[in-house]
Design goal:
Distance between the termini: 83 Å
Order of helices and strands: HHEEEEEEEHHEEEHEEHE
Shape: globular
CATH class: Mainly Beta
Largest sheet: 8 strands, antiparallel
Number of helices: 6
Strand content: 15-25%
Structural class: alpha+beta
Number of strands: 13
CATH superfamily: Umud Fragment, subunit A
CATH topology: Umud Fragment, subunit A
């Protein structure tokens, strides 16, 4: 075979001029590609805040000292969701557990969202004596609670602190007629027994919390999720959901103008336990 037919290797070293020719400039992202990336990001954010997480602001002091008025929470909506076949064990589904803070739809006011702490699950026997909770006969150690108003011996405070031994009534601060009629059906001795597929929850601020003592058990299907952490906390007064437009605008303006001096920076990314 003739040597001329054998391909020869190029042994010439590239010159500086050749090296410059070999460089390729990075491709710039086109407008269409940028918009496609932005759309993908927005879809992921929308999916996350629609199906996985939700934000929630604390409007009252019923969960102090764990949660303060003006705390803004990120809530895991998947915590109590029923497990699906296609997800399997990828997400940590579980039923509400004793001691969990939970966000839920009020069984008394449709559309009203509340946050409380689980005290009892299905089958638990609950009663309070002088503000102390007993579950299944055992006194609970609850370092996260606070008692600031005290018991003045009036009928409302006796009902609040010695539930359910004091009968519910309007005088006791129980406006829910359904609960006044239903509560005696769940009594066994000095305890109230949590029915299947329900939980019993109370606020950590035990002296100033409108909770299951006043509106009854919470159905499992009312649970929205479990709060994870406080992503922002702003010093503000208690407020209700039915604020007028003028009050809402005034509150929004206060947040804008005082975002730096009234933000509780020490509570940023604070885990909720």
């Amino acid at each position: 075979m003739s040597r001329d037919l054998i391909p020869r290797k190029n042994t010439e070293m590239p010159t500086a001029e050749n090296k410059g020719d070999m460089k390729t400039e990075p491709q710039k992202e086109t407008t269409v590609e940028f918009l496609a990336s932005l759309a993908g990001l927005l879809v992921n954010v929308f999916f996350f805040f629609t199906f996985v997480a939700q934000t929630f602001a604390i409007p009252s002091g019923s969960m102090e000292k764990t949660l303060l008025v003006g705390d803004h929470l990120l809530v895991n909506r998947e915590s109590f969701a029923p497990a699906t076949r296609w997800v399997g064990r990828l997400l940590p589904y579980h039923e509400a557990r004793r001691g969990d803070p939970v966000v839920f739809m009020s069984p008394e006011q449709p559309g009203h969202i509340l946050v409380k702490r689980v005290v009892g699950i299905a089958g638990d026997r609950i009663h309070l004596r002088d503000g102390i909770v007993y579950r299944n006969g055992e006194k609970l150690d609850e370092p996260y609670t606070q008692h600031i108003l005290g018991n003045d011996g009036s009928y409302p405070t006796m009902y609040r602190d010695n539930f359910p031994s004091v009968p519910p009534s309007l005088m006791a601060g129980v406006p829910n007629r359904r609960w006044r009629q239903e509560m005696p059906k769940h009594l066994q001795g000095e305890d109230i027994v949590v029915p299947p597929d329900h939980i019993f929850a109370m606020g950590d601020n035990r002296d100033n919390s409108y909770d299951c003592r006043y509106f009854g058990f919470i159905p499992q299907e009312n649970l929205i999720g479990q709060p994870l952490f406080t992503y922002w906390s702003f010093e503000t007064d208690e407020y209700g959901e039915n604020m007028s437009w003028s009050n809402q605008l005034a509150r929004a303006a206060q947040m804008v103008f005082h975002i730096f001096d009234k933000t509780r920076w020490e509570r940023t990314l604070k885990l909720i336990r």
